[in-house]
TrEMBL record:
Tree of life domain: Eukaryota
Name of the protein described by the UniProt record: Transposase
Cited InterPro entries: Homeodomain-like_sf (IPR009057), RNaseH_sf (IPR036397), Tc1-like_DDE_dom (IPR038717), Transpos_IS630-like (IPR047655), Transposase_5 (IPR052338), Transposase_Tc1-like (IPR002492), WH-like_DNA-bd_sf (IPR036388)
Domain Tc1-like transposase DDE: 148-291
Domain Transposase Tc1-like: 71-139
Length: 341
């Protein structure tokens, strides 16, 4: 069924169509069926306007009061489905409409169902340490970030849980406290990998096999063969960033890095949004899933990840690291809370 578009969406659709984009592409961008775009474009070409003639079109089934109720109810109950809101409206005001009409009315006020952004749960201590990190590095320029190696582990799964929960949110609300899904680290998966990136180079992607990562394995399989050689190339300005996972902060690891004269960055807990390598993990997952023949075994997954890591453009890594001044500014502005990164 054709869908109603807001005035903003109509203007955007016409602009894209005039620029030569296909109706199918425009429909995908707006999240509507292609028939809606076709009718809009037909009316625009025939009349020169996208405004309907007075008295045409279906009579609206909702009053201004109904629509205000839906908007407020969606904002107060971000995880309510369109069906829930439909029932809320019927109970509260006696107005019976379809769940599609609910979605249409909320879209008119730029409220759309989205998957909640996943962010770590932050305590007061977390926020304070994050704020201190942002302030300490607020005046760092790009040259200060150039010798820093950002590292991290990540788990990848063969089949992921899409997550059926959706939240109603408007543009710019992705990281509001009541529109995010708070997670705890390592909620499952089948393969763990480790990698490190700098402005000008990267490590190999290390697949951690045969059990979890211990402090001894961290030294033998990652620090010795991957970090130390690159630290020697970069020189005395080298700074190593690692998070506060247990193997990273074990005494034997700390002693080893001290013996190698490695300068460690003091990293705040629960701060994946400050680590640019997190975006690399997201891109690797997308690249692997877009393959013509996606992996169906863990060995195939490991091989695909290594290949995509090796093929990841260095320019893209460079741009991610050069975002650090903006990340620190955003962190201070959020007073240690979640940022859009």
């Amino acid at each position: 069924m054709p869908q109603q578009l807001t005035s903003i969406e109509v203007s955007r659709a016409v602009t894209l169509l005039e620029e030569g984009y296909s109706q199918r592409y425009v429909a995908q961008q707006l999240g509507v069926v292609q028939g809606t775009v076709w009718k809009l474009w037909k009316r625009y070409r025939e009349t020169g306007t996208v405004t309907r003639r007075a008295g045409t079109g279906r009579q609206r089934k909702t009053t201004a009061g109904d629509e205000r109720f839906l908007r407020l109810q969606a904002l107060r109950n971000r995880t309510h489905t369109a069906r829930d809101l439909q029932e809320d409206l019927l109970r509260a005001r006696g107005t019976r409409i379809s769940d599609q009409t609910v979605r249409n009315r909320l879209r008119e006020v730029e409220l759309r169902p989205r998957r909640p952004a996943k962010v770590p749960k932050l305590t007061r201590v977390h926020r304070q340490s994050r704020l201190e990190f942002g302030r300490e590095h607020l005046n760092w320029q790009l040259r200060h970030w150039t010798p820093v190696m950002f590292s991290d582990e990540s788990k990848f799964v063969l089949t992921g849980n899409d997550g059926r929960v959706r939240v109603w949110r408007r543009p710019g609300e992705r990281f509001m406290p009541n529109t995010v899904h708070k997670t705890v680290p390592f909620g499952g998966g089948s393969i763990m990998v480790w990698g490190g990136i700098t402005v000008n180079t990267r490590t190999d992607l290390v697949v951690i096999r045969n059990g979890g990562l211990t402090a001894r394995r961290y030294i033998d399989e990652i620090l010795k063969p991957q970090v130390i050689p690159r630290a020697n190339v970069i020189g005395q300005n080298f700074i190593f960033m690692q998070d506060n996972a247990r193997p990273h902060i074990a005494h034997i690891v700390t002693d080893y890095l001290d013996d190698q004269n490695i300068c460690k960055m003091d990293w705040p807990a629960c701060s994946p949004d400050m680590n640019p390598i997190e975006h690399v993990w997201d891109q690797l997952e997308k690249r692997v899933r877009r393959r013509p023949n996606p992996p169906i075994t863990t060995e195939q997954l490991a091989q695909a990840l290594v290949e995509e890591w090796d093929n990841f453009p260095q320019d893209a890594l460079r741009r991610l690291i050069r975002s650090m001044p903006r990340r620190c500014t955003a962190l201070v502005q959020a007073r240690g809370g979640h940022t859009r990164y």
